[in-house]
Amino acid sequence: MNRLHLAGAAALSLTLIGCQAISYAPGYNSGGFNQPRRAGIEGQWVDPNGIVSSFYSGRFETRTTDTNSLLAQGSYTQVSPSLVEIELTSLLRNTTSKVNCAQVSRDRLNCTSSSGSQFTLSRRA
C-alpha cells in the first residue's frame, strides 16, 4: 500500500510540475495562448494620419485606411537590427525616393526621407 501511495504522489508531483511549466511558457496567460509580439520591422505600421505601411519579406507598401488604396510600393533592406532602408515609388506623384528608418523601440520607427522630411511610424496592433 505504501508503494501505491508513493507512486501516486510522484505522479501527482510530475503533473503539477508540468502544469506550472505550461502556465509560465512564453506567450501564455490565463486566457490562453497569445500571438507573440513581433520583433524587427516585419508587419504593419501606421503614421499619425492613419496611412498604413506594410513590411513583408523585403516588400514595402503604403495604403489608405478608408479605401485600402495603394499609395506607394517598393522594397526595403534591413541594414542592421535597428536600421531599415526603403526604396519606394509614389503612385500618386509617380516619383521614386529613399527613406531611412531607425527602429527606436519595438513599436516605433523614426524615419527620414531623402528630401529631409521626418515622420514616425507606430506598430499597428
| Number of β-strand runs | 10
Strand content: over 45%
Low-confidence stretches: 1-37
DSSP helix fraction: 10-25%
Distance N to C terminus: 57 Å
Protein name: Outer membrane lipoprotein
Organism: Pseudohoeflea coraliihabitans
Pfam families: OMP10 (PF26368)
Signal peptide: 1-21
Map the helices and strands:
Layout: H1 2-23, E1 28-29, E2 32-33, E3 43-46, E4 52-56, E5 59-63, E6 70-80, E7 83-90, E8 95-105, E9 108-113, E10 118-123
Antiparallel strand pairs: 1-2, 3-4, 3-10, 4-5, 5-6, 6-7, 7-8, 8-9, 9-10
Q: Keywords for this structure?
A:
10 strands, cell outer membrane, palmitate, disordered N terminus, 18% helix, two-stranded antiparallel ribbon, 1 helix, alpha+beta, single chain, 2 domains, Omp10-like, signal, 8-stranded antiparallel beta barrel, 125 residues
What would you say this structure looks like, in words?
By secondary structure, this protein is an alpha+beta fold. The protein folds into two domains: 2-33; 43-123, no CATH class. Helix content is 18%, strand content 48%. It contains one helix and ten strands; from the N terminus they run H-E-E-E-E-E-E-E-E-E-E. The chain has one helix spanning 2-23, and strands at residues 28-29, 32-33, 43-46, 52-56, 59-63, 70-80, 83-90, 95-105, 108-113, 118-123. An eight-stranded antiparallel β-barrel has the order 3-4-5-6-7-8-9-10. Strands 1-2 form a two-stranded antiparallel sheet. A hairpin with a 2-residue loop joins strand 6 (70-80) and strand 7. The longest helix has 22 residues, at 2-23. The termini are far apart. Mean pLDDT is 77; it is low at 1-37. Belongs to the rhizobiaceae omp10 lipoprotein family. It is found in: Cell outer membrane. This is Outer membrane lipoprotein.
